[in-house]
Each structure stands twice: as structure tokens, then as C-alpha cells.
Specification:
Blueprint: E1 4-6, H1 7-16, H2 28-35, E2 44-46, H3 47-58, H4 61-102, H5 107-138
Antiparallel strand pairs: 1-2
Helix pairs in contact: 4-5
Keywords: CF(0), Hydrogen ion transport, Ion transport, Lipid-binding, Membrane, Mitochondrion, Transmembrane, Transmembrane helix, Transport
GO biological process, one term: proton motive force-driven ATP synthesis
GO molecular function, one term: proton transmembrane transporter activity
């Protein structure tokens, strides 16, 4: 059987509630005084109503809109990682051309280092894209 909560304590608990339980340590004495018999029976509500009202309070349409906006902002921020990856790849191959011009004899050695740098930079870009897609579609 769920505990009966007074209506006056309900409004206090709704704003002070921080977890998934319906007990609030700072309001426990306040609620206990009403459960001892002070006040009429019509002032009490069921604990299930408290949980149901609290869930609708947290999952309102404005909260869903805020969550969706946060997803888009996070995905946009993760997209900046892909732009950084593109800039890194451009820098790597630009430096490769400059190095070829300075010393053409090291062409094979320089190309292997450039491919390694390209792969690492591309991996960072792919990780950023993965995070962006996870933010949009997984959470």
C-alpha cells in the first residue's frame, strides 16, 4: 500500500524531488506530521498519483523539445571534429608536396608517413561522425 501524502506536502515534494524515489529527506518530518492524523482524509493523495504526476511533469512537450535541441547542438559540435579532420588531411598532403619539392629522393619514405597521418586523421573524423549519429539516433 502506498503512503498517503497531504496535498500541501505534494507541492513541496514536487519541486524538491531529485531521484526516482518519492521520499524527500528535508520534507520527511513535514509529511510525517500530516500522516499522524492532523488534517482531514480529503487532504491526502495516493503515492501512485504523485509518481504519475511527477513523470508527466518531467516528460512534458517542452522537455522533449529541449532534449531534441540538445541533441542537435551536440551533433553539430561533433561535426566540428569532422571539419578538423579535413583540415588535418589537407595539411598532411600539403606538407607532403612541400617535402617532395625539397627532397625528391625520399618519395617512398615520405609517402608512407603521409598515408599513416591520413589514416589517423581520418579515424578521428570517423569517430566524430559516429558520435554525431549516436547523439541524433541512439539517445
Amino acid at each position: 500500500m502506498q503512503p498517503m501524502l497531504p496535498l500541501r506536502a505534494f507541492s513541496l515534494c514536487r519541486y524538491m524531488h531529485t531521484g526516482n524515489s518519492i521520499t524527500v529527506p528535508s520534507a520527511a518530518a513535514f509529511i510525517k506530521s500530516f500522516q499522524l492524523g492532523i488534517g482531514s482524509k480529503s487532504q491526502y493523495i495516493n503515492g501512485n498519483q504523485f509518481i504519475q504526476n511527477h513523470r508527466t511533469f518531467r516528460t512534458s512537450s517542452s522537455m522533449r523539445d529541449i532534449d531534441q535541441a540538445a541533441r542537435y547542438i551536440g551533433a553539430g559540435a561533433a561535426t566540428a571534429g569532422m571539419a578538423g579532420s579535413g583540415a588535418g588531411i589537407g595539411t598532411i598532403f600539403g606538407s607532403l608536396v612541400i617535402a617532395y619539392a625539397r627532397n625528391p629522393a625520399l618519395k617512398n619514405n615520405l609517402f608512407s608517413y603521409a598515408i599513416l597521418g591520413f589514416a589517423l586523421s581520418e579515424a578521428i573524423g570517423l569517430f566524430a561522425m559516429l558520435i554525431a549519429f549516436m547523439l541524433l539516433y541512439a539517445f
